[in-house]
Amino acid sequence: MKNRFFKPGLQIAAILIAAFGAFAFNQAPAKDASLAIVFGRMPVSCADTNIECTTDQIGPLCKSGVTTLYEWDGSGCAQPLHKKP
Predict the structure, then answer these.
(1) What are the beta bridge partners of residue 63?
(2) What is the pLDDT of residue 2?
(3) How far apart are CA 13 and CA 25, in angstroms?
(4) Is 41 exposed, middle or buried (0-12, 13-18, 19+ CB in 10 A)?
(5) Could you tell me the pTM of the whole model?
(6) Could you tell me whether strands 77-80 and 70-72 are parallel, antiparallel, or unpaired per DSSP bridges?
């Protein structure tokens, strides 16, 4: 009578431990630290915005509404920024 309940219980426990072990010890994907996150600036006035953009040249342009945002380079805003992935 004990074996009738004990054997299936061990099988279920083994499956649960294996499933837990498979997911518990996988490493999370590393974030790409090479992306520089900057706040975009308006094109003419170089006014700050609170929109985070990246200097990475891949992907769509970073925009505030329909206006493309730019990076401050010390003397003006000439470099367009791109959306954060």
Answers:
(1) 68
(2) 61
(3) 18
(4) buried
(5) 0.57
(6) antiparallel
